[in-house]
Each structure stands twice: as C-alpha cells, then as structure tokens.
Amino acid sequence: MIGVIADPTDQDVVREFFELFKTPWEFYRRDGRYELLLCAGDGQLDRTAKLVLFYAGRKMHFDDEQKLQTGRQRKNSCILSYQGNRIAI
Known about the structure:
Oligomer: single chain
Number of helices: 2
Radius of gyration: 14 Å
Distance between the termini: 23 Å
Largest sheet: 4 strands, parallel
Number of strands: 6
Shape: globular
C-alpha cells in the first residue's frame, strides 16, 4: 500500500493520478502501514514505512537535517544516486 502526504490543495490531483494508474493507495493515516510513503514538501517522517520519498520544488528541512546539497540542474537528463545505486529520472 502507498501512503500519500499532500497539501489539501493537491489532493484532487493525487486522487486523479492514482485512479489513472489503478494503484492501491490512500492518504496517510497514523495507524496505516505502508510499503511506500510519498511526502510532498516537509511532511512528517514516518519511520514505519519501508521507503519514504520526499518531493518538492524547493529546499526542505530534511535536506538541511541530512546535510544534502540542493540546486538547479540544467541537464537534459538527471541521475539519482544513493549509496552507490543510480536511477535515471
């Protein structure tokens, strides 16, 4: 199950996205158990999810806490690198 933490203003878009792809999901519940938790912006970090993905168009508190460098990329392609693993985005 995918849990989603999103701004109330984005919730209609989130519903439409998951309905389009027929993917099991729900808005985050404290008592929920999730394989994946998608957090838009500075959501609370839920350590019970197997994988937590934060996404935002700006620097977040998590970036500062983890001492991550952020900045604009002007390349045509982007590679996410974490602990030696690379994923094309």
